[in-house]
Design goal:
alpha/beta; 2 domains; about 180 residues; 8-stranded mixed β-sheet; 2 helices; flat; about 25% helix; 8 strands
Length: about 180
């Protein structure tokens, strides 16, 4: 009986060691690290829909940092995003940041665009030129509304308040005589 318990304990320990090895391999090869690297910056946005902690910070499409904190500024009611940027990247002061989508169904990330200023943003500094996330539902709603408005205008003839232009083929103007127009 004691022999069986020792074998079970040894097997359990071996499983834990193998699981720890897989975890270490996954962290080392995922592009993320357990300890945050780089220097901290922050930026404020009107909306950050879908931008999560740990999201990528990219410059020219290349990951250069990670979003580390999200909060609301109680004075301005803007979303204050804190993030890290690799120590090798020195951003000019006139750089900009935008909350961007990875595609139609992809996640959100923070996209940086380097400016042209010779002075750089110091660690702990702020990026002041920002573009908030585009809300896909609002954009789709506006498109549907404008399409239905346009369809009703076409169905009703001319747009309200505008006279039919000569030759536009509306009921008010059948077109030039003799070119297929029929008069009753």
């Amino acid at each position: 009986m004691a022999r069986r318990n020792a074998a079970e304990v040894a097997t359990g320990a071996a499983v834990l060691v193998v699981a720890g090895g897989f975890l270490a391999y996954a962290v080392a090869n995922s592009g993320r690290s357990a300890a945050g690297g780089g220097y901290a910056l922050h930026a404020q946005f009107n909306r950050i829909d879908g931008l999560a902690l740990g999201a990528d910070v990219r410059l020219a499409g290349v990951k250069v940092g990670t979003v580390t904190d999200e909060a609301i500024d109680p004075k301005t009611f803007l979303a204050d995003i804190r993030f890290t940027v690799s120590d090798a990247i020195k951003l000019p002061r006139d750089s900009s940041a935008a909350v961007t989508s990875n595609g139609l169904l992809g996640g959100m990330y923070l996209s940086l665009v380097a400016g042209g200023d010779e002075r750089t943003i110091s660690p702990g500094g702020a990026i002041t030129i920002t573009q908030s996330a585009v809300n896909l539902e609002d954009l789709l709603g506006k498109f549907i509304f404008s399409a239905s408005t346009m369809a009703s205008a076409v169905k009703g003839g001319a747009v309200k308040g505008h006279a039919a232009a000569p030759g536009d083929g509306t009921a008010a103007d059948p077109g030039p005589p003799g070119l297929g127009s029929h008069t009753p």
